[in-house]
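Predict structure. Chain length: 351.
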Amino acid sequence: MLTTDDHRGIDMFVRKLLGTVLGGAFIAAAGVVVTAAPAQADTLGSGAGAECSGSGCSVTVRYSGSAAPAPGSPRHVASVPPTCWYGDPLTPQQLLQKWDDATADGHYSGIDHLRLYGSRAEIEEVANNEDLQDARWYQLRCRTGIGLDDPEAIDYAGESVNMAPGGDHPYARITRLIRPGESAPAPLVDVETLRDAAYDSMTIPDPDLERNPTVSAAAATLVNLDTFFWADDYQDTWDITASVGPISATVIARGNRWILSSPAGGATCDFAQLTRAWSAGTSPEEGCTITFGRSSRGYANGFPVDVNASWETSWTGVPGPSAPTPLDPLSTSSTDFVPVMESQALVTTVG
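Prediction complete.
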């Protein structure tokens, strides 16, 4: 039976081992100190752009859809962190040396942890094979909060190891041999990361408002007259898709109300009202109308009319939920300026 000192020795041994081989992650005597991976994850396609090293990794995301940032804009292409990846390749001789360095203090009670790196005999066999001198051992990395004992990390590694002989708690093997002519596996990306990227990058266009009446060169409206506002060809549904290889997440936003407000009047309109253009005989209730109670004298460009919209959002993913799953609502706002004039009438007859 191991004593308290033995457990302390194992912990110190493992910290030394992973400080040498993994560069910061560590395994405690009771197990790997990381948490579970997200439920939705998959590996990237061969065309996915990724820049990975031992200290981090970023994967290029591309957006599409009616609410995607405009092509050519800085936000049209973004980067997200993958769940796990392979980095910091070691030659067979380097890995063999690190194995020897990690066991140089002779503390045998921690030797089982080295199973996560493969057997010394296996590493030595590769190191002594002339045909594998250009082979490299890549090291498994996962972002903070992802566990080596998580099933998805194990699936990504392609091999699991029990640190104790006969044990039933598998961990992902940390090293993977990449032979000459082969490439390291593409990074692992979870669809929820893409969902969040799409949600944060959603760009819903402001409505381009028309109005009636417009009088004079200033295109003003009149005090105490119903002024119709509408947006031709506007949409009540917008979408954006974030994609990395075969993985994608789509966020959909649906508008449910638009609030128009100004210093002299306002209105709350649904989509049918917002898109109902004025025509002769249209009642104020059918459209989106404001009756301004006074002129905009003192406002150089007319009254500011703020247009605030609320949007219900949901998402689907591949892999991920096929049925729309609700997200937090979004809001948008824009401002138009409306000159408002008083109508003057000339009285020519009294009585």
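Summary: The radius of gyration is 32 Å.
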